[in-house]
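Consortium newsletter contribution from the modelling node. Members have asked for a concrete example of what our holo predictions look like. Here is one, prepared for the pyridoxal-5'-phosphate complex that several groups have been discussing at recent meetings.
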Amino acid sequence: MRAPQPRTKSGAAPTSEELHKRRGDAVARGVGSVIPSYVDHASGGTITDVDGREWIDFAAGIAVTSVGNSAPRVVEAVRAQVERFTHTCFMVAPYESYVAVCEQLNALTPGGFAKRSALFNSGAEAVENAVKVARHATGRPAVVVFDHAYHGRTNLTMALTAKNMPYKHRFGPFAGEIYRVPMSYPLRDGGLSGAEAAARAVELIEKQVGADNVAALLIEPIQGEGGFVVPAPGFLPALRAWATAAGVVFVADEIQTGFCRTGDWFACHHEGVEPDLVTLAKGIAGGLPLAAVTGRAELMDAVHVGGLGGTYGGNPIACAAALATIETMHELDLAGAARRIESLLVPRLRAIAERDPRVAEVRGRGAMLAVELVLPGTLTPDPVATAAISAACHAAGLLTLTCGTYGNVLRFLPPLVISDGQLGRGADLLDAAFG
Ligand SMILES: *Cc1c(COP(=O)(O)O)cnc(C)c1O
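And here is the predicted structure:
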């Protein structure tokens, strides 16, 4: 059922062009949008704008609507919850769904040990709280992060994020005690093995920070905004082993990689890595704002009562949506769906790479896939071609995103419920956009 369109004075529904004009006079310029079209409705694999134009969705609202937009179970759960109560604040008057979401997260995240969870509103807030927990539990100040990392836009998470433009430029000064070390980036680090790349990072930590000063090592198991960088095999397990030996809290930021996106419940599952803490958001609640920190009970419970929380954290409507989302992921085997997307899309990407020398690499896992573009015959990033191909996709009706420190990565994050037909059509449009 489509909601009725608000009418203008003349009685006609506003067009994207009209809305864009209004936006210019109302919305802060600093908030950007990928396409200038305004959404009317969206489903499993498409978005339809107010002008009636349909887009194949290879973005999923940045890896959020993995179960699709307005997924039936989510809609039903939200509707039922919104009629019972909308907000009491879990810190004031608690409710079951918050507890149930925590139970689910404790069971689904890697590691068979006792866990606790706490719920928040955004990914950045989850990362902030993971750092709070790690610092509190260890009594140490330093946080180690990686080149190309993205962890959010709040003050602490800007400091944790690597890229200046657009995330940090002129927004400092930033939070202190953040130390950055090199990532394993197989295309760009001369073919270091995972163990060698980990040793390089560890040496810098030990020499420049001192393991005893490090509260947390924070890492995306596959980097998101930084370019869908998949570390060499062995990199994550080696860092995990070092953190254990050094008494450092290993925090996996699975905000983008989590909830079936990479073909398993969490990206850490692929290498058997068990983080001490995991940060979660994006795909967790079918589009409703929810985030979480899940991790070892002794770390999470180290914090005094009242030390964690927030007015809206674990809002009952978002919790109802999360429970419905998780149920949908089980029922439709969306981890399997992500692997199927990989098996269908990767050959199409490889075919493009074979004929187009600008494609240096096809990479990713599950339904988190990307191509990195360079000047042919070099490793020099080509953000101009990346932007041009992306624009051609948008003009043709395929919603794609770019990423990467150098702005030269095209990434593909379809909803996991996208149909084979929609996926194939999207791949055709992408293929044509490369020329
Ligand atoms: C999106 C993202 C964040 C920040 O999440 P917000 O909900 O935008 O605050 C943090 N870490 C990773 C890996 C992300 O992809």
